[in-house]
Amino acid sequence: MKRDLLIVRLPPIFLGVTLLTIYLSTMAPGLTWANGGSDGGDLVTAAAVGGVAHPTGYPTYLILAKIFQAFPIGSLAYRTNLLSSVCMALTSVFLYFFVVRYLITQGKSQPQFFGLVAGFAFGFAPLVWSQAVITEVYALHVFLMSFILYSFTTSGDPNPSLERWRGIWFGLAMGNHITSILLFPALVVDVLINKTTSLRGKCNALLRQFSWTLAGLMVYGILPLRAASYPPINWGNPQSFDGFIWLVTGQLYREQLLIPIPSFISRLSTLTALLIENFTLPGIYLGLLGVVYFFKVSRFYGHTLWIAFAFSVFSLQYGTVDSNLYLIPVFLCFASWIGVGLQGVFDIIGRRLLVGKVIMGLLVITFMIFSVLNALPNVDASQDDRADQFVNMVFSQSPEHAILFAKGDRAVFSLWYHHYALQERSDLFIIASDLLHFPWYLETLRETYPALNLSEPFPWTVTIMEENPGLPVCYVSDTKTSQIECNIP
What we know:
Elements lengths: L1 H25 L13 H9 L10 H11 L6 H30 L6 H12 L2 H7 L5 H14 L8 H17 L7 H9 L6 H19 L4 H6 L13 H8 L12 H33 L5 H19 L10 H23 L3 H26 L6 H12 L5 E5 L1 H13 L7 E4 L6 H10 L12 H7 L5 E6 L3 E6 L2
Parallel strand pairs: 1-2, 1-3
Antiparallel strand pairs: 3-4
Helix pairs in contact: 1-4, 1-5, 2-3, 2-18, 3-4, 3-8, 4-5, 4-6, 4-7, 4-15, 5-15, 6-16, 7-8, 8-10, 13-14, 13-15, 14-15, 17-18
């Protein structure tokens, strides 16, 4: 009995602890620009000051980030980074259970090793690892999705408790990242394909599930409440209906949706290259075996194929520099196929030669270790202090009571973190030049800096300088290089 318990409990614990340990050893010690983490300053600061982050607001993330920020360890940014590490490690654990449960339904004995391979293949994929060691929303995004994916393995007779939890988590997932709406068809189909339930029962199940989804979506209600206190980070000022809709629908990024068809087609090669880069050629072959050669009609394949297709299409047609991060759910599905594909190969080898199975297992473990060592230099954020160095440079060269016109996300968000969250250089007036044309930003500046004179409706930098004579002015940016230029009257 004890041996059976160890076989059941030890592998997922080993998986989660191993990943978390390595994530922590490579996690950024503070605010970081590593791994495309320029948004970190905005997210950390919004959570810390009770503010509203950039569209789509990310209320679920802000709540959890605030909880992690209360931990008595490391810097404020370090504690927020920790949320990503924990979420990504737990995602791999859910993936382990997802694969193991599927293999058990297929009559496979002792599928734990293949669940571990799937979990490690996902957790150590460079793109996944890169997001586990910085402050960003994608680790929480895929974690919430992994729970919903795992819940599909328990489908069967109507289960009000499962429908409640699935609905709440779906709502919270959309409260973290709006692309979670792509899971909606899978949630509906999972109920409709149940052959043991009448049409009326299916309708009741859908009603229960999406009633609880609305309960989860109520997390968006914290955004107007936060905005009402006029925090210094208050994107869209969602107290009004128009401001709320502008924020949560991501209107700021709509122009980047639906890129031209030729660009979309050319991006297909990028997707292939990313898969090879993250899973290597042997992993690609195993994944293709798992999804093609060993394919069986089931919830496992139905849901993973849909998620992989939907998020691939979204990523390919979204014209941002970080659109590849929307492929992380695709990697979750591909890693599950790797586990199934490897199990199928072991079955074929095991029928002929037991020694071959042992050798194959050792080769898989050895190959994964080398893959981890190869990925390490590219994702390790533990030594990255560029953001702090940049802010220290700016603050050391800024005269007292200066107006700082900052340009570029890295510059603006890093200054926000040190100025608002850490309350450094409270004498400065920090203004994001690219946001001056938004009325909500002018209102935020007036509440944050009542001593600063701001004209209406569009105060350009030169206008602000004219209305505040006697104040030093500095221009700060970090695009290709970090620079500051100050004019002292």
